[in-house]
Fold these 2 entries.
Entry 1:
Amino acid sequence: MRVLAAMSGGVDSAVAAALAVEAGHEVVGVHMALSRSRDQFRTGSRGCCSIEDASDARRAADILGIPYYVWDLSETFEETVVADFLAEYQAGRTPNPCVRCNERVKFEALLDKATALGFDAVATGHYARVVERPGPDGTTRRELHRSPNAEKDQSYVLAVMGPDRLERAIFPLGDFTSKEEVRAQAARRGLAVSSKPDSYDICFVADGDTRGFLRDRLGSRPGEIVDTEGAVVGEHDGAYAYTVGQRRGLALGRPAADGRPRYVLDVRTDSNTVVVGPAELLTVNRIAGEKATWLVETASLADPTDVAVQIRAHGAPVPACVRASDDGAGLQVELTGPRLRGVAAGQSVVVYRGTQVLGQATVSRAWRDRAAAPGAVSAPGGVSGSGA
Amino acid sequence: MTPGAYLDHAATTPVSAAALAAFVDEAQRPGNASSLHAAGRRARRVVEESRESIARALGARPSEVIFTGGGTEADNLAIKGIFWGRRAQDTRRTRVLVSAVEHHAVLDPAFWLAGHAGAEIVLLPVDGEGRLDLDALRADLAAHAEETALVSVMWANNEVGTVQPIREVVRLAHQFGVPVHTDAVQAVGQIEVGFAASGVDALTVTAHKLGGPQGVGALLARRDLAIEAVQHGGGQERGVRSGTLDVPAIRGFAVAVEEAVTALPERAAHLAALRDALVTGVATAVPEAVLRGPDPLADPSARLPANAHFTFPGAEGDSLLYLLDSAGVQASTGSACQAGVPQPSHVLLAMGVPEAEARGALRFSLGATSRADDVAALLGALPAVVARARTAGLVGKGLS
């Protein structure tokens, strides 16, 4: 096959490209430039966007003996991932930019362009497995599964890609059980990126300062922080910068009457108010999702065996009963085991059966059954790097 | 050389056999041209003979040749050195006039001066073919001559090949007492370049565009031109450019310049004929392609003989470049890159080309080793490449 290896400049995508070459594919390395004004060097734990990262990718391609190009996807990235990030926060929701990047940039803009230019597939350094099974009529069905490396598993941020795009994706690191093994493979091939640190932060937010980034882009909008009784307990610079479930950075003037820590319970962008309260009010057992995409027939959800949902990239899956709406665009989740704390609108809810990804949706609402009036509750903004 | 059709000689062109032999021969001999012993004297003699040879070929005096580490360094020395030298004579002289289509090696030092030395940069406009607007130059000089440190206008453009009206620029600037620098990196070896005859005060030339080694060049500068050193140290090259002279590279440079200038009439005719075949061939193979820069069939002297440049509507330059590269044809988007990302060309934008069209640009540049086969390889691959790139260019359009 003609394979485009997406090369970020990191060790995972370099080894993925190497494995694609060794599998006998005709491989071309492409580094996506996601910003036109790029820093010269990597700083902190941002992992993809400096000129140094592009140079590292180029050196890896040299060593693998494959052609290498940089494609400018900065406009697409700004118009989809960054714009969505800002709009979602502005609406009081908690987006996952790595999910959006996989959905709109890596497995849409890049993959479609690659296809148009004659490539059969895109290979990335994601930790997830594609399992091929014989279909009903002699066809082959592709299933997306978790990586056996639970710590690095990225199936959560890939769930959004949908079946058509999964057909054209290759994850050569799918069977790796440890990052050390990937680093060893890189070292064995003389790839200098073998000891490069992992990336975690959101790549387009300098210093990991999400609130500062939002303030720069959305402007300062001072308002009040109130408790569940409506009493003013503090001030903020813009309600949009808060995430349901967040505890740190609240700078509350008045301590709670009971002295217990308080968390963000609700972000009301219409009144520019942040509501805080005790942790137990964050606990939910029901989640509604929208913009669902499915990698399996939704009818299969009728069988509840081993079905679980996950609401954060590295969160634990919890058993659930999941129903898709008739048109498949929405889903309803009822947790059947432990409850979840801090589920934010805007996060992705990913549905698994065992290790297999069944589908995903964007959380629109989460609530407790017993609550008289369901209120949207959300989670700490645990956005983790998608890598690759 | 990499197999396939190499159509990017404006980026760099192979070292000629004679220049390579001279370089290799010299590299085997010891000697720092600043040393006083026999080995040093021998090296110095090679440098001075090379200087004389380059001066002769370019119509300059040997003492006007300042060796540098290439074109970018020579441009930096010219822009910064002349700015500082002229301002030291008269503190009012803070304006730097540069054409909007200059190479970044001229634009960036100029804008650096604006940010660090109080310079005011005036970008002189060009017409739709990239030719300098002389009326704009005249008007600016008439209003601000006393505050103007220098004018810098390239001899010929590196992207679209437009030959600038250097003599008129010099006549105008000198009328107002302002010196002129010209970046002749692309011109030397392709068209006749005479330093004294042109009247320019400083001229940049580099070896690797005309068959010499990479990493060596020169600034030709009149002896009476006020120019401050940018690089300080051992006081080599009139004290204007310190640093041990790269004797093998300088000798290879001199051999290449002499060869290129001697061969010029014949070589230019060969290049122009090949280029004209390329231009007409592209027009036939891809009728929607738009030739940028002067039409060489209308006025051959308006454009460098080795340059052709097109935009391909609906196609992205990076797709075109990748697809041609896979087909064994090496070309360039022509514009500056940042870590390999082609930016929309400031040259095309200055010519009034809309940004969307500027994205689909390709430059084809020929050299002494170019053959009809290279053009044939391009023309054979191009229709399918453009069709495919246009399909890829439609991806994502109209979606949100």
Entry 2:
Amino acid sequence: MPGPAIEIENLTKEYPFGFLHLKKKTSLEGLNMQVETGEVFGFIGPNGAGKSTTIKLLMRLIFPTAGSARILGKPISDVEMHREIGYLPEQPYFYDYLTAAEVLDYFARFHDLTAADRKDRVQRMLKKVGLETARKIQLRKYSKGMLQRVGLAQAILHDPKVVILDEPMSGLDPVGRREVRDIILELKKAGKTVMFSTHILSDAEMLCDRVGVIVGGKLRGVGAPGTLVDMKTQGMEILFELRGASNAPLLSKATRTGDCYRLQVAEEELYAAIEQLRGAGARILSVSQVKGTLEEFFMNLVEADRTQAAAVEVSGK
Amino acid sequence: MRRVGVVALNTFREAVRDRVLYNLVFFALLMVVAAVAVGQISIGIEQTVIVSLGLSAISVIGLLISVFIGVALVSKEMDKRTLYALLAKPVRRWEFLLGKFAGLVLALAVNTAAMALGLLLVMLYVKHSLERGDVAVLVAVYFILLKLALVVALALLFSCFTTPLLAILFTVGLYIVGLYVQELRNLPVEVMSPAMAAFTRWLSYLLPNFENFNVMAMAAHGRAVPGVLILQNTLYTVIYCTIVLTAAAAVFSRRNLK
């Protein structure tokens, strides 16, 4: 049984600010977390929650105030361990005087690959991220989405065991997002460990074995998307069609779109509601359970954090 | 060291693609104008005028590139965040820094060599032949290159802990001070307090001595530059650059990126 791919212990980051840097803002507070080998782990949270800070700490782009982290069992200060890591920075930017093929070849040179191997990998990666036809264009002429694709290509070019992606879907159109999702699933299939940050919850729900929710620099929950949220049925939703006018009392509670209505009722009231609607001449299209979503869980945490922050501000503590 | 070489070659490529070597066109134009004008206005001192003008131009152009591009070497990478993906590769921060330094010095060497060649061609045009004493011109060009390497190292150090604008000011300021280090050593220490005299002496050794690299007068008059000075300046540059780059690496290795 392989150990965790990423182990984070009490990781804390404070930024000094103000005159003479005497004040401190805590960006990340005592983060403890593990990412298991071979899993896709989603790191979700609103902007400024500490997602990028955590990833930058793991990449040693910034240094922790306290705590430590290990990747593949080695401390993050071990530079050689970076041979096994792929990293996509948030809103990546590369040398704009180079072409996509040149920038990938440049990065490949740090991995002791032969010239033939480099050439082969660069070609395969450009094809994989859909930049084959733009390979000879300087990056200064690339769009944001194209740069994101270059960033993804350089992250997986050397076949790393652990891939860390900071907002990989950012700046991509729906087609691009779909392609990134496919690449992440491909990496998972190949046994790689993937950790990615996002604030697009549907992506996390769709791709992740587990997610970690971070709000206000603190980890608020870790687990499979299904276990994090309250999966108990919160009610039943009836979708029905009704042409013409009706005075059924339930209609006032329904949401109307054209001739279609959407009505949410308690589980025990379902059959009575259906009978009443049918009596009013409605055609029932579907009945489905209403469950808690990751989005609701996430929004509740964000709301609680804002309320707490406001209370602290008011009390002055 | 292979990783240093990869960064260095890319830095050189950046300088070439960002059209840094276009300054050679300006130098060529200046030399052509000088060659035509010198015959008209100076009789018997063509060599002195051409060599002084050529070496001054090589020095000033080189200094501008060293200061402005030297400061941008690291600060631009931090500002544009091109450094992020690179530092996630198996490369140490000091290797990156040394590579950037070596790459710009390589670009300066090519640039300076091209200008030196231009200067020799103009000298050949004006004098119709080159003499043994003209080797001093090549030594003077070599000294300019050493001086530029030192300026790049200083610019790199300052850019590691301050803003680009301040780094430019510090580098230029230190260069100007470094031109007068000899005057600092010649101060009458006997009229100073012992503490002040010791401080002045230490300061004069601590500051980079750019005056030692100036052999323009010798070159202009075709006088040979002593071999010991060549050795001394080479060693001085290597040791001083090593110290400055070690300090830069120490600062940069602890720096939090944005």
